[in-house]
Amino acid sequence: MAYYYFDFRDVKKQSRYGLLTSLLSQLSAQLDSYHDVLAKLYSDNRDRTQKPTSSALTECMKDMLSLPGQGQIYIVVDALDECPNVLGTPSAREEVLDLIEELVDLKLPHVHICVASRPEIDIRLVLGPLTSLQVSVHDEKGQKEDIIEYIKSVVHSDRRMRKWKKLDQELVIDMLSEKADGM
């Protein structure tokens, strides 16, 4: 199993390159047969003056996943919507979506990919046709209640906010809950 979280606070964790290096590292630590694939990547970049390209990392990932005789592999990609989708050709998010599409297109029956994200339009357009199972909790009552409870706990446990008037606390809770948009 390999897990990756796109973190909007960490630029290094907002790209295809960051995703690939993390997944390759996690997978290679779990199975000895991956070491040969990783060693090839290393030897191909023998001069060590430059990092491997995103394309080289992608091929390394595909080679690892395609090795015969493996057990089930689970790849979890969390908070894809936090990967930037800013102007650029292509954007960081487009590059990640392309990678996910490439991995799914390998049609490896032992590889399972789970992507968690808010339902942004570009993400839905790419992932929709690729999925065998789609679960949306974006507008679920339980999720909204969890968000409200979390906001309340922060407001009521914060040293400064506890001193606020009840009306101000409730206003903050109401506004943040209303604008949370599933987050």
How would you describe the overall organization of this protein?
This protein has two domains: 2-130, 3-Layer(aba) Sandwich (Rossmann fold); 141-179. It is 49% helix and 8% strand. The chain has helices at residues 16-28, 33-44, 54-66, 92-105, 121-127, 141-157, 166-179, and strands spanning 2-5, 73-78, 111-115. A three-stranded parallel beta sheet has the order 1-2-3, covered by helices on one side. Helix 1 packs parallel to helix 3, helix 2 (33-44) runs antiparallel to helix 3 (54-66) and helix 6 packs antiparallel against helix 7. It is elongated.
Q: What is the structure about, briefly put?
A:
The chain has 183 residues and is mainly α.
SSE blueprint and pairings:
Blueprint (H helix, E strand, L loop, with lengths): L1 E4 L10 H13 L4 H12 L9 H13 L6 E6 L13 H14 L5 E5 L5 H7 L13 H17 L8 H14 L4
Parallel strand pairs: 1-2, 2-3
Give the quaternary arrangement of the chains.
single chain
**Major sheet attributes:** 3 strands, parallel
| Low-pLDDT residue intervals, each spanning 5 or more residues | none
* CATH homology-level superfamily of the largest domain: P-loop containing nucleotide triphosphate hydrolases
Number of helices: 7
